[in-house]
Amino acid sequence: MEQRNERADRLSAAFNELNTVSLRQVAEPDPDVPRRRAYRRLRNRAVAPGIAAAVVAAAIGGVSLARPLAAPPPTGVIASPTATDLPSVLPSSPSGPTPSESPTLLPSRSATPSATRSPTPTPTGSTNSRPTPTPTSTRYIDLSISAPRTLTLRPSDAGYTGSLTITMGNAGTRAYDAGDLIVVLPVEATIDLNGTNIGGCFNQGQTDDLKTMFCTGDGPIPSGGTRSYRIGVTVNIAPGGPARTLTGCALTVRANVSGSFPADRSSDDNTARTDLKLPAS
User: Fold this and answer.
1) Whole-angstrom Cα distance, residue 236 to residue 239?
2) Under 8 Å between Cβ of 105 and 99
């Protein structure tokens, strides 16, 4: 009987001690318990993205992504693993399905776009539709004429007479029909074309001092060649009195091509001027 009461008292004492400890833990919890729980949660949050990134990298099979694998964990809790720590997390060989086996894991387009450039539009029609330009002709006309700068005439019964030698040249390469002459003379002077192949002259105008005539020219001169003519000159002024000089005599050559007169390449040498000197008697 005493042994039974001793056991009951021992059991009651143990129950009272357990009850007392439980009440004390409820009233005053262990301060390390919340810290251990928070640490486990933060560790799980930090490790989970790294594991997820490793699984995705293994599933894609080495395809690089344009955006980062996962957002870093909050600052001040646990330092996020650096880029050098990632290879230790990745498996040595991808164990997940390849992109061909699991299309749902692949992104909708590759990280590096490879758009095909459209060909340059070509103009409609054949490329040979443009007319072929004809080469510019290199043929040109370049006539010249020369004569003495002064001509001294001799007194005669009719007045003063003499002869003027002129030379025509052809430095051009274009063909022409004839080398016409434009003759300008003092009103007192006339010319005589006898003995030349230059045709007849006809008056084109006259002023108080000068008169102008057009003379049909000789045939063409070969390229690089020259031809000389001796023209008679007469001044209808009675001899006597002091010496004098008549100015204004000029001979101009121009090319005649079927009645038209094309431009000369160098017009500076197309006119020869001669002063007519009348000596004193």
Assistant:
1) 9
2) yes
Matching residue, tokens 């560790």: 43
Cβ distance 261 to 188 under 8 Å?
no
Among residues 189, 178, 180, 159, which one has the least CA distance to residue 276?
Answer: 189
Strand partners, 190: 234
Confidence grade of residue 72 (pLDDT, cut at 50, 70, 90): low
Structure tokens at 61: 């099979």
DSSP string, 173-207: -S--SEEEEEEEEETTEEEE-TTSS---EEEEEE-
- Comparing 44 with 87, the larger pLDDT belongs to 44
Query: Do the Cβ atoms of 252 and 145 come closer than 8 Å?
Result: yes
**Percent of the residues in the chain that have a pLDDT greater than 90, as a whole number:** 45
Average pLDDT over residues 244-250: 96
Q: In the prediction, which pLDDT does 143 show?
A: 97
Q: How many helices (H) and strands (E) does the chain have?
A: 3, 11
